[in-house]
Specification:
It is built from seven helices and seven strands. With 267 residues, it is of the alpha+beta class.
């Protein structure tokens, strides 16, 4: 009962954090849209007054104001509105992506862990070689029963991040280790020697739209939130061990047999 209560408290706290993040991040572009819509309105009034002969200024001044509105004010306002609506669209799509994780029907099947890990590592091999790097794989568990799509997505995302946030001044060293934690749980650790993440950001990086460190790479801050959503849907969780400048280890712990919770295995 105590564990169940703790889980409910944690879930409630996460819902509140999610609601705050979503309203805060969606409100920012909305405020921009409202502000620049007012700019559009002012520019339009200037143009209308000029053509109606109601500008109230000397003709040349009125003409200069109108040219300024047409050539600068209108394009600037339209550009900012487009940028803000694009940002809102990206945020909404990110929310929908996380939502789909929770609604997607899981399909437990028996998976060869070594094969799955090697397949994901092969997908980034070209980028690893470009970084003069290497990937080491150690798999001490033969098979597990889980949702293939979810595990591939989670692992692929972690490997992509390791390449994306590598430390350019040293060759990339990336490792994936899979092992049994106990009779019912398996662990998958993804480690790198990249930039690392400051301790105060260890939980923050798993939140939607939140990123850590210098923002010199493209992204919206949904990758690790997506990974955590996928892993939790498989009945597991993910944690982080990292130091700035010393790399990171993402530690997945999940049931070795998901069919015990969501249905029978499909052979």
């Amino acid at each position: 009962m105590r564990e169940r209560t703790e889980d409910l408290i944690q879930a409630n706290q996460e819902i509140q954090r999610f609601a705050y993040i979503v309203t805060h991040d969606l409100r920012a572009p909305l405020v921009n849209i409202m502000g620049f819509t007012s700019e559009l309105d002012n520019a339009l009034k200037t143009i209308q007054a000029y053509f109606k002969g109601e500008a109230g200024s000397a003709p040349e001044t009125a003409r200069a104001d109108t040219v300024l509105a047409v050539e600068e004010d209108l394009p600037e306002a339209i550009g900012f509105i487009r940028s803000s609506t694009r940002k809102m669209d990206e945020l909404i799509n990110a929310i929908l992506k996380i939502s789909r994780d929770g609604r997607r029907q899981l399909k437990p099947e028996r998976i060869d862990v070594a094969q799955l890990v090697q397949h994901n590592a092969a997908a980034i091999q070209h980028q690893v070689l470009e970084a003069s790097g290497e990937v080491s794989i150690k798999v001490d568990v033969k098979t597990i029963v889980t949702d293939r799509f979810s595990l591939e997505q989670a692992l692929g995302n972690l490997l992509d991040n390791a390449v994306k946030y590598r430390e350019p001044e040293r060759p990339l060293r990336l490792s994936v280790r899979a092992f049994r934690v106990n009779a019912f749980t398996v662990g998958i650790d993804v480690s790198d020697n990249g930039r690392g993440i400051a301790p105060e950001d260890h939980e923050r990086v798993f939140e939607l739209f939140r990123r850590s460190g210098v923002q010199d790479k493209p992204g919206e801050g949904i990758g690790l939130a997506h990974v955590r959503s996928l892993v939790r849907n498989m009945g597991g969780d993910i944690q982080l061990k990292s130091e700035r400048g010393k790399g990171s280890t993402f530690m997945i712990r999940m049931p070795s047999d998901l069919s015990r919770f969501v249905g029978s295995i499909s052979e």
